[in-house]
Amino acid sequence: MTRITVMLMAALFCDCGAGHAEEPLSAFDLFKSRCLTKGSTFDRTASIARVRGWRPLPFDLVISLAPMENADLAEGWMIGHRGNSQWQAIVVTRATVSGTAVESCTVAASGVDSAVFERDFFNLTDAEPVREERSPSHVHKLFTVNPAGRRETITLTLPVEPAGRDPLVASVVAEAQWEN
Prior knowledge:
The protein has helices at 2-12, 27-36, 42-52, 59-65, 114-124, and strands spanning 55-56, 73-82, 86-97, 100-112, 128-134, 138-145, 152-159, 166-175.
């Protein structure tokens, strides 16, 4: 939990403005479109980042946002940035876990109504709660979903007391799917 809090604070003061001005999606719409709808796809997200000119995140920030340790590949980009009060970043990883290729997709954002994000998440998915861990400032919620028979693990890290302009981190880890 402390790692998430420190990472979010570091990102707030990071000089990682977007490479090209782009009106960012809401944090939930970004998570839905890049991580949930078609699942986490490392190559697709990296290709979109290059085409849109998203500015790469510093590697230590990428690693701090990755939901799993020892990723084989990890990349991240700042997508939207409006001063120190509101930003969005996306991180994708590829790893091998117990002999299975997995990919992850993480969206981190500030200035988000986390209660609305969580409501929209439950309206879109049939997520099953697995575990919840609390710190004094954040709650870390773990869920599973099985869209189209593909098991995904989803993690939401939200403030304990939402204030309407919150930092949050949302991640999906799933078995890798290779696009043709």
